[in-house]
Amino acid sequence: MKRNALLVSTLPGLLALSLLGCGASPATGGGTSSPARPSQSVSSVPSATPQATSPPAQSGSLDVCALATQSEIDAAAGVSLGPATPQPPPNPGSAKCSWAGSGPAVGGLFVPGITIAVVPLPAGASAQQLPFFNGQVPGARPISGLGDAAVAFSPGQVGPHSVEIYVATHGSVLTLALVTGSPHTADPVQSMTTLAQAVVGRFP
C-alpha cells in the first residue's frame, strides 16, 4: 500500500519514545537511513509571506491544508503537484495534509509529493527533549531563524532527492516532507525551508 513520507506517519511514536527517554531516532523507521552530514545551518529566509488562499479542507480547529498556497507547494517541489488533500491524522489531536505528485511510487512504496503534518507536544515537553533537535541524530542540519528549533534531513529516508524538515513552534512539531524520485531544479532543502517559513508564519 502506498504511503506518504515515513517520518511524518511515525512521528507520534517517535515523539512518545523520545520524551520517555528511549532514544528513538527518526533514521531507524525503515528505508535507508539518512547519512551523517556536517552540522551546518541552513540559511533562514524572509518571513513575509502572502496569506494562504486554500479553502478549508479539513475539519477540526486546524486546517493544515490552508497553511500553504498551491504556488508555494509547487515552488518547493520544483514541479506542479495536485491540490491539497486532507489525510487521516497520525494520532488524536494531530493533523495532516498532502499534495500528490505524478509518477511511480518512490521505492515502490512512497507517494511522490509534499506532506505537512502537525503533532502537538505533550504538556510540559520541550523541543530540546527530542533527539533530532538536540544534536543526537546524525544528519540533522539546524535551520536558523525558524520556529523555536528546526532541522532538515537531506537526503531523506525515501530516496536521494527527498527532504524532511522538522520545526518546533507554539507547542507543536510541524513536519514537512518532500518525496520525489527526480532531482530538484533548485536546492530542495532551501526550497522546503522557504515553504516551512511560510507555513510557520501562518501557524496559530
Main sheet characteristics: 7 strands, antiparallel
Mean pLDDT: 74
Task: Provide the succession of SSEs.
Answer: HHEEEEEEEH
Would you tell me the structural class of the helices and strands?
alpha+beta
Distinct helical segment count = 3
Just name the CATH architecture.
3-Layer(aba) Sandwich
Q: Rough shape?
A: globular
CATH fold node name: Protein Transport Mog1p, Chain A
The CATH class label is Alpha Beta
Output the strand order for the largest sheet.
1-2-3-7-6-5-4
Task: Based on the model shown, name its key terms.
globular; seven-stranded antiparallel beta sheet; 19% strand; Protein Transport Mog1p, Chain A; 204 residues; 7 strands; 18% helix; alpha+beta
Describe it.
The protein is α+β, with helices and mostly antiparallel strands. The protein has helices at residues 6-19, 70-77, 188-202, and strands spanning 84-86, 95-100, 113-120, 141-142, 149-153, 163-169, 172-179. Strand 1 (84-86) and strand 2 (95-100) form a beta hairpin. Helix 2 runs antiparallel to helix 3 (188-202). It is globular and about 45 Å long. 44% of the residues are buried.
Give the gist of this structure.
The chain is of the alpha+beta class and 204 residues long. Helices cover 18% and strands 19% of the residues.
Set out the fold topology.
Layout: H1 6-19, H2 70-77, E1 84-86, E2 95-100, E3 113-120, E4 141-142, E5 149-153, E6 163-169, E7 172-179, H3 188-202
Antiparallel strand pairs: 1-2, 2-3, 3-7, 4-5, 5-6, 6-7
Helix pairs in contact: 2-3
